[in-house]
Structure formats: structure tokens, C-alpha cells
Design goal:
The complex is a heterodimer.
Chain A: H1 2-8, H2 10-43, H3 59-69, H4 80-97, H5 115-123, H6 126-136, H7 140-169, H8 176-182, H9 188-191, H10 193-206, H11 218-221, H12 231-255, H13 273-297, H14 303-331, H15 336-359
Helix pairs in contact in A: 2-3, 2-13, 3-12, 4-5, 4-6, 4-12, 6-7, 7-10, 7-14, 10-14, 10-15, 12-13, 14-15
Chain B: E1 18-22, E2 34-40, E3 43-50, H1 70-75, H2 82-97, H3 103-132, H4 137-157, E4 166-167, E5 170-171, H5 179-201, H6 205-211, H7 219-225, H8 230-233, H9 241-244, H10 265-289, E6 309-317, E7 320-328, E8 334-340, H11 342-347, H12 350-354, H13 359-369, H14 373-377
Helix pairs in contact in B: 2-3, 3-4, 3-5, 3-10, 3-13, 4-5, 5-10
The chains are: A mainly alpha, B alpha+beta.
Chain lengths: 375, 378
Amino acid sequence: MFLAFVSDNPWLEAVARLAIIALLIPIGVIMLTWVERKVIGRLQMRLGPMRVGPYGLLQGFADTIKLLTKEDLRPHTADRWTFELAPFVIVVPVIMSLVAIPFTADLFIQNLTLGLFYFVAVSGLSIVGFVMAGWGSDNKYALLGGVRAAAQLISYEIPLVMAIVAVAMLPQTLNIPAIVAAQQDTPNIVFQSLAFLIFVIAGTAELYRPPFDIPVAESEVVGGPTVEYSGIRWSMFQLGEFVSMVLISILGSLIFLGGWQWPWSLFDESVPVAAQVAMMALKTSVFIFFFMWIRTSLPRLRIDQMMSFCWQILLPFALLQIILNGLVLVYDWPNETLILLSGAASVAAVYLTNRTARMSGVRFEPGLQRVGSVL
Amino acid sequence: MAIETRLPAESDLETIDINVNVGPQHPATHGVFRMILTVDGELVVDLDPVIGYMHRGNEKLPENCDFRQVIGYHDRTDYLAQFNTEHCYVEAVERLAGITPPERAEYIRVILAEMNRIASHLMFFGAFGTDIGLFGTSFMYAFRDRETIQDFFEEITGERMMYNYFRPGGVAWDLPENFHERCWQVLNSVERGIDQLDALMMENEVVLARCRGLSPVTPDDAINWGLSGPMLRATGLKHDLRRAEPYSIYDRFKFEIPTGTQGDVYDRLVVRMEEMRQSAWIVEQALDDMPDGPIMAEGLKRVLRVPAGEVYMRVESPRGEYGTYLVSQGSDKPWRHKVRGASFSNLSALRAMSVGNYISDVIIILGSIDIVLCEVDR
């Protein structure tokens, strides 16, 4: 009765959907911080949080309460409006880009025809927030971090978008449910492994997660743009970071892993909604676990290595994937040729990266060594 | 290596170099070291190290102490290699007073000092991983094994950090009954841990890309700066005081002196990693040969009066050459007491190694020196 009333009225329905999202995001993020601490704890032979609640389940809530009740500090010399607005400029685009993300065939906030385009356009806006935070804090660490963040985000946006474009090329649509539907038989990761690799790497860089945590590097710039923030404003940064992590993970599982579809059409046409959601959750968790996993095992890159890796390896290979897709489209080759072409190109990319990393700084002739070798 | 100060590039845009204060309260400066970086964007144009926050008069204070009371101050100079520093001091007093410690005490000292070297290098790898951005993983792995060693030391000396166990003429008391089994047990688990740490750090592509070729030091420069320890050996010089002028009973053991080739940060890691294995080997040999017998030289007075004279004793501590210069005028207190800290000399090369590099590289160059601020400031 009530549900029918709500779903009849488009305005009420929109408000209800937004309310659900607004409730889900903070709780999800709080649980995700717990998961991250647990996962990292186990990978480092620790237990992780164990005190608050069973297995420390309520730790995130306790932390949130602490953050909410903390004094909201602003440095005396900070630029007031820039400083205070920055966390919101980061969080709002992230939550806005949630609008275009479907969770199952029927469960979404808004099915946009240009969903992928909208996602890319809106999520790129949060750069501004980091630069604002870096500039407005009137802190040298924050300034360095803000400039680093701008450089990194703008650079890695390009291969990320190109990987997404490559995916959108074959089904020739930017509508996410349509892209998912096109992966009915085989997920895109099989056809476009190169684009998948680039997407994951560039996505990691977009999230400032190791090995690309250069803007927020603790041992160098002590947290970068977030260094002067405390309490609720700091938790905004955290919120933005975790929601974007979930977003990238969901997007990755949608456009590369076949989204809510079960492999080999296990339920054959009539997949129950619960099973769809479970599949989505599983695929998303794989991504999230991957991001947490590499955080414990990879050190940080240097800023010039990060930049040259983006422009010298990721970008050319992303272009290569687009060219391959274009060839398949123009000459009407079967999609299966892409498995071979893209696979070979990914092997080449991995080999090249590995080789440059291993060869960097190895001195072949004495006296010719450059200090601070570049990839 | 001449220090090159980079001038800001000519352009229409007016740019200024900013000073960034790294330390004394900064996650990357081990202890309370402070460096004032002058940066041009991400490049470090100049570096001004500031030390002295940790100065406690560790050289002057012992001049008012009995010869045996000084041991505790040596624990507190290099608080990660306490047995090595104690070894240096007690050996200096013994040389000055003409005391010969019994065999068993020498073996105990060597075993403990080498175990301490492993513990210190483990600490280095843990902290270095954090410097290079390995979110705590190396720390946890390294500290698990360091903890094992510290528990072992606690069983012997009753202390976890400031052991105060060596004495002029021997050691304070005999080892516990189950020393041999426990030592093998600790050694085996630590050697397993070293292999894991090796797999985590040394073959990591990011570590390779970051550390290889970074701030290479030539052997000549290393000698001119007075570098010692792994910093010196990374340049390719096979200089180890345990071999060069064998003190204690180091001439009885077989061990390799690991050296690097380029003297860069990666070579320093390699040298330290290999040194841990060599130390474990020395401990194994010492355990096999350790005799029974007294642990303290005969006929020592309750108040130790050392005949007038002077002595400079140096040992190979995990950080390099750790030395003590003692002058006695025949009383029960040292008349002059000077400590040569390896970290201090190694740190003096920081500016020349860092200028021209990126900020993040300066952090790991500082980390690769493996300073202990208590030893720098004393």
C-alpha cells in the first residue's frame, strides 16, 4: 500500500531511493573500514580490531562516534572557505556518481543512457576538492600533497577513461545495463584483458591506494591534503575514499566481470534478484579485497615513476586496445580474435613493466649512472 | 662527490624554493632527527640536517661513574645494538686494565652480539619498509622475529632493552640451563623469518625500481666521509672490523663479508640482509664450540681501579664502527670517555647524497643510513 503509493509518485520514489542510498553509504563505509583493518591485520599476522563488539565488529561505529564528537579544528592561517568546503567538494561528486551505477537489472537509482559518460565526468570532479584542501590548509605538506594529487588524478584519468571507452566500443553503447547484457555469454575480461589491467591499475591510482598513494604518502607528506583536517571533516575524506573504492569495484565488476550475471547462465534467463545481488557482491568484494591486498604488499612509487608509467606504458597500451577494438569493428573480425590480440598485448605490457622496474638503476657502465633513474 | 646546488630554472614565471621541515616530529625521521629541505617542486635543492634534540651528555656523565656503572650508558647510546656497544666498552676497559676474560664469557659475548646484530637489522628492514611506503607489513614481519630475539635476551639478562649484562672481565651471570636448545630454537625461527622478509622486500619490483641506482656512493667518497658498516660495504669495500682487526674471538669463526657493487640504497639493503645470515652462521659456530667454565675473570676487586693510560677500542656494530676512547688516571672512574658513533659519521654524508633527488627519495636515503639518534647525539 505504502510502497505502491511511493512508487506511483516519481518525486516520492526519487526521495525514497536517495534516502536508502544516504543510509547505506555511511553504514557500508563504516563496515568497510572494519573489513579493511581486519584484512590488513590478517595479512600482517595481526588480529585487527578485536575489542569493540564480537570480533571488533562495532569498531567502525566507535571510531565514527569519536570522529563526530571531535573538535572541528581550522588552522589560524587557513583560507576559511576553501578549507571548509574542500571535504564536501570531494564527497558530493563521489555520491553523485553513485546515481548511474546499477546493482542488478532492476535495482538502480537512475538508468542513464550515457551512464558511463556521466560516471567518468562526475567522479573526475573530486580533484578540485583535493587541490582546494591542499591549498586552503596553508600547510606545506598539504600543498605538496595537493599538487601531487592533481598531477596524479589528471594523468590517470586518461588511461582509465580509455579503458572504459574500449569496453563501450564493442556493444556500442554507454548504457551500463546494456554493456552488462552484452556480456551474457562471456565477460569482457576475456576479450579485453588489456583494458581490464589498465582499468585496475588506473583505478588504484584514482583511489590513491598503494602503490599510488603518493599524494597522501605518510612518510613523506604526512597525509598530504588531509594533514590539517580533524573530526568530521577528516572523516569526509575517508568517506569519499571508501565510496570511490566501492564505486570503482562495482564499475569494474559491471563492465569487465559480467555484473550480476552468473557464469554459464547458471540460472538461465530467470536469475532471482537475490542471486543477482549476491553475484554483484561477490564480484565487487574480489576487487575490494584486491585493493586491500596490494596495500600490504607493494611499497610506494616515486612521483616521476608514477607519471612516466602512466604516460609511457598505460596510455600507449590503452590506445592499442582501442585500436584493436576498432580493427575488430571495422573489418568485422569475430570477437574471439580479441582474446588473442588483447591477451598478447597484456603479456607484453606486463613484461615491459616488469623489465623496466627490474632494469631501472642497474649500472651498465661506471660513470654513466643517473641519480634517480626513471622508468 | 661535489655537492651541486641546483639553481631555479630560468623562466618568465617567478618560482621560489620553499623550505619544508621534516622532523623532529615526522613519521619518516627515525627518532628526533630534523632536516630542513629546500625544495623546488618535488626536487630537493638543499638539505640542512639539525641534530642535538637527543643530547643527554652520554659522554660526560660516565666520567663521574664507576667503570662498571658506565656499561648502562653504553646501552643507551645505540639502543638497538646494546650488546655490541657493551662489548666495545668492556673490551676497552679490559685492554686498559689487562684483564683476560675466560673463554666461555667470550663465546657468550659473541653469540649475544651477533644475535643483536640480527635484531638491529630486522629493525632496519621494518622501518625501511615503512619509509618506502609498505604499510606496516615489513614492520610486523621484522618485529615478530625481533620480538623472539628480545624474549630470548630477556631470559638471559632479565631486560628487554637495556641489558647491562657484560662486565669488564666476563659477563654478569651464567646462562640459563636450557640456553642451547632455546638458542637453536630462536635461531631457526629467525632464519625462517629472514627468508620471508627477503621474499617480501628484496624481489619486490617497486623496491627495485625505487632503490636501485639511488644515491650511489663511490668507495673513495665513502672513505672520505668516514662511512662505515653496511654503508661502506655497499660500495664494494670489504672492510669489516671483525675481520680487519679481530677483537674478542672473532678470528676463530668463518664468515663472509657481504659487499655491494654500486653503493646505492639497494646494495645497502642487500648487504644488511646477507649480514643477518652471516651473523646467524657465526652464532651457530659459536654454539657448537662453546666451552664450559667460569664466566668471570679471577681476582677482580670489588672496586675496579684501572691503571693510568688510554685506549681506543672499536667494534663492528650493526651500523658501522662503534668506538670508545678511554683515558684513565688510575682511579675507579674514567678520566675521559669518548664515544664514536657510526650513525653520526654516516649521517654526515646525508646532504651530499640527497641534494638533487626527489623528496620521497631523500626519505628513503635517510632510512637506508639506519641512524639511531641516541648514538648521533649521545
